[in-house]
Amino acid sequence: MDFGKNKTAKILVFSFLVAVLILTVIFTGCKTGKTSEEEPIAEETDEISEEVEDDSGKKIDEDKIAGMEITGNINILSGLGISGEVWNSRPIAVMIENSPDSRPQSGLIYADMVFEVVDEGGVTRYVAVYSSYDADITGPVRSARPYYAEIARSFDPIYAFWGTYPEGYDIIRKLDMDVLDGNSD
User: Fold this and answer.
1) Cross-strand bridge partners of residue 52
2) Which residues have CB under 8 Å from 92's CB, separation 6+?
3) In the chain, fewer beta carbons within 10 Å around the N or the C end?
């Protein structure tokens, strides 16, 4: 067929392609299959349940859970076992840079918990909390901000950073934290 001269051939080929496209859309859209039944959405209630079900469906009394104590050398931050050497040591929370130029950071893999927080200007920084392992090198260490200090404070750590603005020192002092400031004497 010479499509350049035969207008009827062009129309037939175009019509055929449109028909194939329409049939494809119809057959894929009308596909029948098993529909999954949606689980009913639980309604919120103001009542506090005294019993909780675990994964196996057994009921657990909340009073028994509240009275449980962690026994053995378990890291309360990670839930993993911890050596006797670091059992009674305090955590250390370190401010770590996260700009593209600072990557890869050192020592993040040894942190028990890492919080990524948006800073001024949309950049993020990490609050890395170490309690199980010592990192030989950690960093790059960055300056503190009050909201980072508040996150770190929940772990009663030694808070390590590299400087802050003058009002920031006052706020951190009021939080009554032990600090390790690389920018001070």
Assistant:
1) 60
2) 129, 130, 131, 157, 158, 160, 180
3) C
3-class DSSP string for 98-152: CCHHHCCCECHHHCCEEEEEECHHHCEEEEEEECCCCCCCCECECCCCHHHHHHH
Contact criterion met (CB below 8 Å) for 142 and 163: no
Q: What is the DSSP letter of 61?
A: E
Q: How confident is the model over 16-51, as pLDDT tens digits? A: 888 888 888 887 776 665 555 555 555 555 555 555
**Dihedral of the CA atoms 164, 165, 169, 170 (nearest 10)?**
-160
Cβ–Cβ < 8 Å for 148, 173: no
Q: Which has the closest alpha carbon to 182: 155, 143, 148?
A: 143
Cα atoms found within 13 Å of the Cα of residue 78, Cβ hemisphere only: 18
- Contact between 114 and 120 (Cβ < 8 Å): no
How confident is the model over 125-132, as a mean pLDDT?
A: 91
Give the chain's radius of gyration (CA, Å): 30
